[in-house]
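User: what does the whole thing look like in 3D?
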Amino acid sequence: MRYLLVEDNRELADAIVNRLALDGHAVDHAASLADAEDCLAAAQYDLILLDVMLPDGDGRDFLTRSRAHLETPVIVLTARSQVSDRVGALDQGADDYITKPFDFSELEARCRAVLRRRGGEARNEIALGNAIFDPLAGTLRHGEQTIDLRNREIRLLEVFARHRGQILSKSQLMDRLFSYDAEVTENAIEVYVGRLRRRIDGMDLRIETVRGLGYRMETGEA
Amino acid sequence: MIGTGSIGRRLTLLLAGVAALLSVLSWWMVTGLAREAAERTQDNVLAASATTIAETLRSEQGEVRLELPYSAFSMLGAIGEDRVFYQVMAGDKLLTGYDDLPALSDTPAPGQIAFDTGEFSGEAVRMASVSRLVLAGTQPIPVKVTVAQTRNGVGTISEDLSRLAALLSVAFFVIAVVLSAIAARTSLRPLNEIAAAVSRRGPSDLRPLHRNAPTELAPLMSSLNRLMERLGQSIRRSEDFIAEAAHRVRTPLATVRAQAEIALRSVEDESEKQRLRQIIRAVDESSRSAGQLLDHATVTYRADDLARVPVDLSELAKQTAGGLEPTASMKDIRLRLFTVYAQVAGDPVLLENALRNVLDNAIKYSPEETDVTLRITTSGTEARIAVSDEGPGLGEGPAQALTERFRRGSNTQGIVGSGLGLTIAEDVLSAHGGRLELKSAEGGTGACVALVLPLS
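Assistant: Here's the predicted 3D structure for the full assembly of 678 residues, as structure tokens:
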């Protein structure tokens, strides 16, 4: 997935870019509306994250202006939680909004929801052995069979899929699966891995336990 | 001058006063004219009568003779029940009639008629006198014929006419008062229409008024529009200020939070992780409180002058739940909606805010992989949106107390919250004539919060 982030605060932008890159997304950063116009002219994006207050204008005006010819879904990053502001952003053509400061897990969840809602051409199916995983739809197809996965299972499988063959520690997986303050222990990871193993049972796809280090996903016959 | 008061009443009174004056004046004039007309009629008849008598004068053997024609008196009888007197004088000699009839103040010239008013046998009389020269032998003798009549008939006629005039004047006055009231109301209608147009508007509608107003109201209209323009500007300025301030505060907070979250991933030491979590929690706490305080202020402001448009609760519930779906999915919580069409009258922005607070609470306090159920039911005159979860319930103490400002349940440690969510929801509902009902699920775990609203 290719994202465009329009945000004038450099530190915040860096943090968002880093985090989204972790999920395997390519993120271009524009610090102003003029930059954003240039980026949009040069490349196709799957999703735009748009700050509302930019040095060269209001993000919402940009949205109204470009909505006519812009197909790409937009999530507005707003500083206000005031009711009227939210409604206003949605009225002006944003697909969703998120209030600063935000939880990365929430941003991720909202991006996913918007992409799923607006999806269609933006499919990014991942082939895992003889199964096809669609992280947006949250489905795993294997032959005739289509399995619906729950949100945590989707994210866990996504992390494994993007780091095939690599060992992932329990704490790495926890960071990706749970919000920072979720009251969970590393045992929870074992529960989810166990579940996911049952889901992929029968496919040529395995999650191996690497004693003392974590887990690793392999495809192909063992 | 009547001080302040109704312009309509003042205008009506003024017009009615003028009408009263005109009525009295017209009555007085009609009465005067009627009397004059009656008098002139009597004069004419008296003159005709006197002339008729004078016509019959002739000389016979050097003597002046006359025959009193009946018609001369019958024509006088036409005017009421008046008594008639007459006198015919040939020179200084009384020919016939009443010799004590008072003389006229001026003697008429021959062939002329003179009139006068006098008193005879205790009554006012009107007299007409005709003088004529009659040739008796060789000497022309001046003969004067005087006919007098009491004035009762004239009085009666003019009184009758005066009464009729008074009646007409009163009728005229009554009609004028009614017309004045109608005229006052009609002239004030544009003013009332403007007032109605302004009061029909929603709390945030500050567009200028465009309507066809009479010239006199144009200054008022333009002042009103200028005032609204200024009000709009000042509201926009304060909104801009709030937006700017929020942006300046929240963007660095977002940076702090983002960096802390990234750091949380890279540190290994559990006590350092704990410190980073505290940082994130503090950031969330402050931003959430600030947001809720702002929301609370907005709700209070908008509830003061509540907009009432038709709102379909099922549509509202779908939209609100849709917005919270990603948040719920983070904890693998299913949002289950059971909705029926229910229309209420209210401010959709406020109602959405109230429902979002309630749903947000339910998601926040629910354990992972549970259901949050939203069910809309209607009964009689009420619609009910019940949101139930499988969380820890509402804790100890009276449930309703949780709607107090900054009050949080006894079992909410470790969860970020401002203590304003339910306060906002309750404020919104009571502004709409509804209420918030809170209860813990019986026996087991879970809370049920219901938003109850009157159906429209």
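In plain terms: The radius of gyration of chain A is 19 Å. Residues 77 and 217 of chain A are 35 Å apart (CA to CA).
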